[in-house]
What does this fold into?
Amino acid sequence: MSQHKIIGFDMDGVIIDHTDLKILLAKDRGFQINRTEAQSDVVEKIIPFEKWREIQMALYDDRRFALSQPLMSGIQLILGVLKKKGIPYFLISRRKNGEVAQDLLRARGLWPKYFNKKNTFFVLTKEDKNTKAVELGITHYIDDEPSVLEKLVDVKNKFLFDPYGAFVKQNVYKRLTNWEGSRVYFE
It folds into this structure.
């Protein structure tokens, strides 16, 4: 008998892939970064705070950019399996603008098919993700930022989604490099 699982997902960098747009927006501001450096915990150490905030505003709030971003390859497969098997799952994001996030999920065919007002939550801080995860009974959480996972002190199973190899040397969290090969952890 498998253990009871309740899955938690981050949105940006886990469900939505902003990598190419981050590279382009950084270049427009005079910074050359690659796919590995585009990961949030890495890029914020390369690009000065004010410029990084400009990039984040374009990524998440400017509808021209925010609604154009693709899904991570294979995420629909994982969500379909979870839904079919009746495994509960939630999205917990630090997006400041939940309306734009919902519109992006809708544009990618995930809202309301997989995510809706009952299983989608927007919080302010990394610590708030832990509070919400406890409230929801999350047993497995997937995020693309080690700095977020370290704040999820009450979640037993933490997974680092790292499709571009930004954290190949980290050995604290189970590292996932793609969704297709990760199904076994969430079924």
